[in-house]
Amino acid sequence: MFFSATHCCFIRKVIWWRAAASIAWSVLLLPPTTAVFVMLSKFSFLHPIQTITDCLALLTSASSVFSVILLGGVVIMVGFLTLEYYTVIPTIACSKIALLGQLLQPRQVVNSFAHCLMGMIVGWCCAVAVGHRYETLGYPGKSSDGHPRMCLNEYHLVFLLAGAFVGFSHSLLGVIHNINYVSFHTVQQYKYLHFKGSLPLVVKCSTIQAFYAVRNFIVVYFFLGYIPKTWICKTLNLHLDSSVHPLDSIAGVVDLSLLYHLWISATFLLFTWYITLLLFRIFVTEVYSFPVQLAFTEDSHQCLPKVLTDNQPMILKFLALQDLALLSKHSPSRRREVFSLSQPGGHPHNWNTVSKECLALLTDLTQRLATYHETVATNGRAKSLSSGSERKTSSETSVTSSTEDLMSPRPAFPMKTPASVFARSIAGGPHSPLTAPFTPDLDSPFASPALRRLTAPMDQCSPWYGSVQSPHIMRRAPKLWSTSTESQVNGSPPPSPASVPSPKQEAAKPSFLAQFLQNRKEQVKSFMAKRVLIMYLLNKLPEASSQALFADSQAHIWALEALSYLVQASFTEDQFGVVQTTLPSILSSMLHLQEAVDRHFKLPHASSKPLRSTNSMEDFTYKTLRFALRATLKTAIYRITTTFGNHLKAVQMSAEHRKRLQQFLEFKE
Amino acid sequence: MCSLALFPPPLPPGQTTLCESNNELLSGANNSEERQDSSPLSLHFPRESLKLHSRTESSSKAAFLDHSETLWMRSAAAWRDGGFTGLLNEVTTSHAEVPKWLSVTSGCILALLRWVSSFHGSLHPHVTLSSEDMIAEFSQVLNWPDCVVRAFSWHPHADKFAVALLDDSIKIYNPKSSISPTLKHRLQRNVAAVQWKPLCASMFAVACQNCLLVWNVDPCSLSTRPSSGCAQVLSHPGHSPVTSIAWSPSGSLLVSASPLDTAMMVWDVAAESCVPLQRVGGGGVTFLSWSPDGSHILASTPSALFRVWETRMWTCERWPCIKGRCQSGCWSPDGSRLLFTVQGEMVIYALTFSGSPGVPASMVKGPQTAVVVADLSETTFNRPDGDIIVGGEIQSLSWDPRGERLAVLLKGDPQAANRPAIIAVFKTRANPIFELLPCGFVQGEPGAEPRLMQFHPNFQHGALLTVCWSSGKITHIPFYFLSSGVSHVGLSGSPPLPHLQERPADFANQSLFTELLS
Asked: Are strands B15-21 and A148-152 parallel, antiparallel or unpaired?
């Protein structure tokens, strides 16, 4: 208990203080932004002096102070929502229906509702700040027979609704574009310079997004505007003034001044929110320097090796990996600590923990790729090339088993047996075993995304749900699915047992219940395939499954960089030879990964580049992570081969890997 | 302080420099054609063999018949081709068809724009140049528009190189294979620089007129014409022409510079994303050089100012020059010393950076002033067939990867026959004090002037200087020596060339510059 409390304290110190600082800065930036907004909204060419005096009068008035306080509250709220919803691993929907499922998640609905509400508050503040005809909801008018009565000010209503609409669409687009994804930059800059450099982009994004949002709002209001209007009139007992044009008519909409004010208000709204988001991203991804080892054991949970092995929260693990990559690159003194031996006993604990964690990450990715490839080769698109699939499958399994071989005879890591991995996955979360049957269907349209969300509600903080499984489960599950599918759909006999290695034979015999379910599933599938709309929803988005596979590859990239730089440095700096003992496993896991990545990039859609537009705050990094991983992997292997050169021939490894390594030594990759 | 007068005199006409052995430069008679051709990497690109573009695209417009399109079509075309100014131009010139107020308004805006741009141009004269002139002005290659070989790059690890030619194609040569792929791309025009990616077998970046191209050519492929699908196009609005590129020595990042863009771009090539690093002042970035240890980048601007970036947190130091812009620079192998030259001055300056990479940036104290390490003012050598004047402004600097030889390409004067462009080579020594000692001049065949030079990144027996000549030839001049800094375990014991004669190295003791003297 004491440990977890101090651990919590540490997280609070690192993450929460950063978030608080970012929110504080965005609140501090609010008054100047508001001043600029007021200036722009009241600007008139003909009376520049009067504009300025008007603005000054308005900005110093009590109502504007109240508005700014209210806006400050909104910004704080947005900041907290960002802190609550941010993720370092994007959730990528593989089909339209999965996306819909994401949008309808209760958590997301709450988020949208909150944004809607805050948008309405900002809309009210904007209406008050712009003044004139927008200021109040009702105004005293006259009915047709001359009685004084309160009439509805439709302009004010439009502002409120526009604010709500923009807030809502912001949160919706946020889900579609993964706006809550926080990416780490390869170029480290000081926070101020980073902020200054990104500011023009934020201005551009907010103006363009505001333009689109207002356009959509006008369309929606034109058709559906009467609903909120009559509702407000009824509940507040207001009347419609028949002497003014209703705004949901052609004449009412083509009001340039109204459009301009709507647009500038939407820009203001999005700008303040984007600034909050940007500051949050900048603050939270800042490099944190963890101590490699501490003199006192009470604080050992703050040490780099300790943080590296923890999976919760994910951001801390990422920060630790980033710090590890940077220290391995830049800091000889901290590298010395990594290579050092423990004082009583003389064990290289630091290096063992670091290398084990990095290797576990790499092996995990290799396995994930192999599993995915197996699924695709038997179940997906590659089914048409039936002649090649058989061969592919067998080579696949040989890779899988060899990765296992790689893991089991490793005396240096007693932790790294499959059983222990499995135990860890159970410890990771009570839902993980439940999700096992669903994980290989990451790309399948029929794995209900809603169910997946329900079973793994913490998936944005724990991406390892599909990955830290025992290799047995990982392998059996797709086989169960795919072999029986084969037999049901094509009526073809199951693959000849001669070509299948022995551990798969038990998996090839599905239970009766599973077969029955499979039957039903196939029937539903063929029934649904005839409905166009459903197929539209269920069709896979191209390359999305590939993106999803590599969604957390930033961690692997850092692991590769850290390992390769540390190995490179060990050539001259490692006094006790602690790295030498792990060099064979490092090399072989890198080469295994290289094979798996190479094979993955031969799949269709895997190597097509996504389109990018610079008009939104969306971070595109996650779409290209697989390319970055491929490049980093190659560079990492080359870094080791160029450093060690022909000395590598003395390292023990399989003949296949030796051949591959020879190609790297000759620069033929 | 002494000057080029300490150098051995240039060779008589008809003699070419072959190599350095036993502490002196050996020369041979010009009839050594067969020896040159026997080496597989000595290449010759005759100007006539290249198929050049007869016209540029803009000038071919006049060859077609006059058009009679509608105003809308022409405006759209002008918008597409020339942007906003093109549109204004079109509207102003076709005043018969547009309303008077529109043409007058656009004429006024156009005049205003021109006034503003001329004001901008008076601040930074280089922005008025056309992009080809700009590349020629800021390139490291001497007389770039006339060069047959426009860019050259050795692979940092393997024995192969890429050559960019006048006809906008790039060829890759590898002595171990008979295939030399030719790379062409629609956007590959006016190549200013080529550089291979470190720690990678197949990728290199090309600085083109409008964009950056990153080619990925499989070394095992048998194709002689890889498709343009092998190239990644990296472009950013406003970032053209690209005149200089530099890969980080760790192979992860690529920086590019354009004289028209005040921001230096740092590219993550795999993700095709860039981070602009903007600083006020200078009016652009012309030349980049990444230090071999990866800790610093030299970025020179078109005005009398250059910056040295540190690559940990990407902050920069400003270095204002007195006379002109920084023309060229190079780093010592350990990244601790920067040599640079300034346009209009005939000296080489040195800056020393003492920060070790592990120390935080705030604690690293940069140097306070640059010191002059060599004076290359004009010197007259008497020869039987007339005097020859060597020296003057410097086009580019190149330091071999061991830090033992420094090659300096002197511009000379193309008009005067006795002032040729020439390469002067210095011996450098970092310990116990930094010294430049004279080594000699590198000369080619008569009439051929050096245009471009680069040291081989890992030559076993010393240093290997590759020179591209104006005649279209590429030759390699080895400098055989035993490195004083590194252990000689992997090296063959003695220089393999036969020693023609033994002569005491009398130049070795005369230093042009020592830190103690200044």
From this structure: unpaired
Q: pLDDT in tens for each of the 518 residues of chain B?
A: 447 888 888 888 888 888 888 888 888 876 545 454 456 677 888 887 876 665 445 555 556 666 567 778 888 877 777 677 778 888 888 777 788 888 888 889 888 888 887 777 777 888 888 888 999 999 999 989 988 999 999 999 988 999 999 999 999 998 888 889 999 999 999 999 999 999 999 899 999 998 999 999 998 888 899 998 899 999 988 898 999 999 999 999 999 999 988 999 999 998 888 899 988 888 899 999 999 999 999 999 999 999 999 998 999 999 998 888 999 999 999 888 999 999 989 999 999 887 554 444 444 455 668 889 999 998 998 888 788 899 889 999 999 999 999 999 999 888 888 888 999 999 998 877 888 989 999 988 888 899 999 999 989 889 999 999 998 899 999 999 987 654 443 333 334 443 333 333 333 344 444 444 33
CB contact under 8 A, A638 and B278: no
Q: How far away is chain B from the Cα of A667, in angstroms, using its nearest Cα?
A: 5
Contact criterion met (CB < 8 Å) for B201 and A667: yes
The DSSP code for B256 is E
Query: Hunting for tokens 């020369």 — which residue is that?
Result: B27
Question: ipTM above 0.95?
Answer: no
Residue with tokens 């509940």: A235
Type of residue at B461: H
Name every chain B residue with its beta carbon within 8 A of the beta carbon of A645: none
Nearest to A197 among B219, B270, B278 (CB): B278
Instruction: Give chain B positions within 8 Å (CB) of A621.
Output: 271, 273
B455 and B465 Cβ atoms separated by less than 8 Å: yes
| B326 φ, ψ (degrees, to nearest 5) | -75, 120
Backbone angles phi, psi at B213, to 5 degrees: -115, 140
Q: Hey, how many other C-beta atoms are within 10 angstroms of the C-beta on B144?
A: 23
Asked whether the CA dihedral B156, B158, B159, B161 is positive or negative, the reply is negative
Cα torsion at B511, B512, B514, B517 (round to 10°)?
110
Is any Cβ of chain A less than 8 angstroms from the Cβ of B252?
yes
Q: Residues 6 or more apart from B208 whose CB is under 8 A from it?
A: B187, B188, B189, B190, B191, B192, B241, B242
Q: From CA A466, how far away is CA A433, in angstroms rounded?
A: 10
CB-CB contact of B480 with B461 (8 Å):
yes
DSSP letters along B383-405, please? -TT--EEE---EEEEEE-TTSSE
Three-state DSSP class for A145?
Answer: coil
Bridge partners (DSSP) of residue B20 are B25, B479
Give the up-direction half-sphere exposure of residue A202: CA atoms within 13 A in the CB hemisphere.
Answer: 20
Question: A591 near A657, Cβ under 8 Å?
Answer: yes
Sort out which chain A residues have CB atoms less than 8 A from B271's CB and list them. Answer: 620-621, 624-625, 627-628
Chain B residues with CB under 8 Å of A189 CB are: 275, 313-314
Hey, of B256, B268, B359, which one would you mutate to test binding to chain A, going by the most A CBs within 10 A of its CB?
B268
Phi, psi values for residue B490, rounded to 5°: -85, -5
Cβ contact, residue pair B250, A635, below 8 Å:
yes
Interchain CB distance below 8 Å, B252 and A635: yes
Q: Kind and range of the H or E element at A199? A: helix A191-224
Task: Identify whether the C-beta of residue A94 lies closer than 8 Å to the C-beta of residue A537.
Answer: no
Q: Does A536 touch chain B (CB under 8 A)?
A: no
- How far apart are alpha carbons A657 and A640 in whole angstroms? 14
Query: In chain A, helix, strand, coil percent, each to 5?
Result: 70, 0, 25
Alpha carbon distance A171, A95 (integer Å)? 20
